[in-house]
UniProtKB/TrEMBL annotation, chain A:
Its main location: membrane. NCBIfam families: 3a0107s02c. The lineage of its organism: Bacteria, Bacillati, Bacillota, Bacilli, Lactobacillales. It comes from the Bacteria. InterPro entries: MetI-like (IPR000515), MetI-like_sf (IPR035906), Phosphate_PstA (IPR005672). CDD domains: TM_PBP2 (cd06261). It is found in: Cell membrane. It is a multi-pass membrane protein. Belongs to the binding-protein-dependent transport system permease family. CysTW subfamily. It comes from Ligilactobacillus apodemi DSM 16634 = JCM 16172. This is Phosphate transport system permease protein PstA. Keywords: Cell membrane, Membrane, Transmembrane, Transmembrane helix, Transport. SUPFAM superfamilies: MetI-like.
TrEMBL record, chain B:
PANTHER family: ABC TRANSPORTER I FAMILY MEMBER 17 (PTHR43423). It comes from the Bacteria. GO terms for molecular function: ATP binding; ATP hydrolysis activity; phosphate transmembrane transporter activity. Keywords: ATP-binding, Nucleotide-binding, Phosphate transport, Transport. This is Phosphate ABC transporter ATP-binding protein. Pfam families: ABC_tran. It comes from Ligilactobacillus apodemi DSM 16634 = JCM 16172. One of its GO terms (cellular component) is membrane. Residues 7-248 form the ABC transporter domain. GO terms for biological process: phosphate ion transmembrane transport.
């Protein structure tokens, strides 16, 4: 066979593989959306779930998912940003740094159910935080931190070394160079990482079953005092998320319309992640343009 | 009359770990003018240049001995503030490296960091610096466009304007034209010739014609040693050392 033919053949094979991936994805998405969206209505999205009778919604679970996501990012993003900046810009190249990196790698491959059980033993039982949204958020931080830190570090490292030299040679301090020049340039990469992590958090069930709990207590959406037990913002109430809800009704749901609810909830989950991704990307581009004044 | 010296260096040794990259350099630069550092790749000329504003501090495992003085101040003394030093000794790199901001922001960045807020002063400094860097006519209509949208040659001149804006005394140029096309290189050279009355420019170049065209003095480096230094004309026409002669006539390097 001559090279031209080999080239064509290889291209065909690669195209075929890409097509298979796209078809599988399209099939999955289509199936979930087609079977789920007909059950989604405003009523479905806003009413609390029912355990024994048909007609329940996913209102509280949906709120819990978003609230937990925001809380998790609020805790894990500053931590990973700091750690990432340190590792990429300041850490000396020695055994200790290598050890830290290794620990991060190991932590990132920890199964989420193990993270959940660890969170259960430490926060729920030992620290007596109970099944609560804050236990869930901390457990998810453990789960999130390695990937986010790694992502921040990689994004910073991807900024050419020349930019650092340019900043320093101009008489900028190292801190200024990092925060005003390197960080804005790394921002799109960092945001992509946050979006990926957010998707993981949003769809995570195993780590939450034992930490944020499996019950969605009735909350009162007119009470925004975070110290009140029925307030949506209360950190110490158990909070079943959408993903946990799907798992639960599929394994032990006894309401007559369990199947429809599960399908509808899955569709909502996917759409939410999609919206989140798109808006974060849009926001990232806007932010990058503002910080860099490029058009 | 002996001209006033702005930078003096005595017995400068630099080690990357075990490797000795500079083997005792004694070299002085008179105030103003263009001074070229030439020599084959790996001879230590860039390394030496980077000693002058302490850019080698960024590399791990580097040890520097000897004395380098800027206006009789030891730049490696613990009292020296590297931030202050780098404001006085600016640097232009081989690859144009504008910040991902607008042209305007690129030029004023050093001033902003230094705390200058006066809009008129900033505007004025942008215009003078860009004019000095011979790029004002190219960019005056879209100063708020991203500097990354410019051509390589324009980017390099904006980078030079960025250095000029903070009014340094010395400008280090590390092969500033080797990534540019001949037309752009020519513009940068002409610009340097207009700057040399006010600034001390020290340029590392691989381009012999460039060195002979624009520089006032030339220093030839080889294997970490300074072989010969003197007025450019003398180095090129009548070098005293055999190595210099061999290199310039292309017998090695």
């Amino acid at each position: 066979m001559n090279t031209k033919k080999v080239n064509k053949l290889a291209l065909a094979v690669i195209k075929l593989i890409a097509a298979v991936v796209v078809v599988i994805l399209a099939f999955l998405l289509g199936k979930i959306l087609l079977s789920g969206l007909p059950h989604v209505s405003w009523h479905f999205l806003t009413t609390p779930s029912r355990s024994f009778t048909a007609g329940g919604g996913i209102g509280i679970q949906l709120f819990n998912s978003f609230y937990l996501l925001i809380l998790t990012l609020l805790i894990s993003f500053p931590l990973s940003l700091g750690a990432g900046i340190y590792l990429a810009e300041y850490a000396p190249k020695n055994r200790v740094t290598e050890g830290v990196r290794m620990a991060i790698e190991v932590l990132s491959s920890l199964p989420s159910v193990v993270v959940g059980l660890f969170g259960f033993l430490l926060f729920v039982v030992q620290f007596k935080m109970g099944f609560s949204i804050i236990s869930g958020a901390i457990a998810l931080t453990f789960f999130n931190l390695p990937l986010l830190t790694r992502n921040v570090e990689d994004s910073l490292n991807n900024v050419p070394k020349l930019q650092r030299e340019a900043g320093l040679a101009l008489g900028l301090s190292k801190w200024h160079t990092v925060t005003k020049i390197i960080l804005p340039e790394a921002l799109p990469g960092i945001l992509t990482g946050i979006v990926l992590c957010a998707g993981r958090v949003f769809g995570e069930a195993a780590a939450l079953i034992y930490t944020a709990g499996q019950s969605a207590t009735n909350i009162d959406f007119s009470n925004w005092n975070p110290f009140d037990e029925s307030s949506p913002l209360n950190l110490f109430r158990p909070a079943e998320t959408l993903a946990v809800h799907i798992w639960k009704i599929n394994s032990e749901g006894i309401m007559p319309d369990a199947e429809q609810i599960s399908a509808g909830a899955s569709a909502v989950l996917i759409v939410a992640v999609l919206i989140f991704n798109l808006s974060a990307r849009y926001l990232g581009n806007r932010l990058y343009k503002r910080l860099t004044a490029s058009k | 009359m002996e001209k006033e010296k702005i930078i003096t260096s005595q017995n400068v040794h630099l080690y990357y770990g075990e490797k000795e990259a500079l083997k005792g350099i004694d070299l002085d630069f008179p105030k103003n003018g263009i001074h070229a550092l030439i020599g084959p790749s790996g001879c230590g000329k860039s390394t030496y240049l980077r000693c002058l504003n302490r850019m080698n501090d960024l590399i791990d495992n580097v040890k520097i001995t000897g004395a380098i003085k800027l206006d009789d101040e030891d730049i490696y003394s613990p009292k020296m503030d590297t931030v202050e030093l780098r404001k006085r000794v600016g640097m232009v790199f081989q690859q144009p490296n504008p910040f991902p901001f607008s042209i305007y922001e690129n030029v004023v960045y050093g001033l902003r960091i230094a705390g200058v807020k006066d809009k008129n002063l900033l505007d004025e400094r942008v215009e003078t610096s860009l004019k000095q860097a011979a790029v004002w006519d190219d960019v005056k209509d879209d100063l708020h466009k991203s500097a990354l949208a410019l051509s390589g040659g324009q980017q390099q001149r904006v980078c030079i304007a960025r250095v000029l804006a903070v009014k340094p005394e010395v400008i280090l140029l590390d092969e500033p034209t080797s990534a540019l096309d001949p037309v752009s290189s020519n513009k940068v050279e002409e610009m340097l010739l207009t700057l040399k009355n006010e600034y001390t420019c020290i340029i590392v170049t691989h381009n012999m014609q460039q060195a002979s065209r624009i520089s006032d003095t030339t220093s030839f480096f080889l294997n970490g040693n300074l072989i010969e230094t003197g007025p450019t004309k003398q180095i090129f026409v009548n070098p005293t050392k055999k190595e210099t002669d061999d290199y310039l006539s292309g017998r090695f390097g």
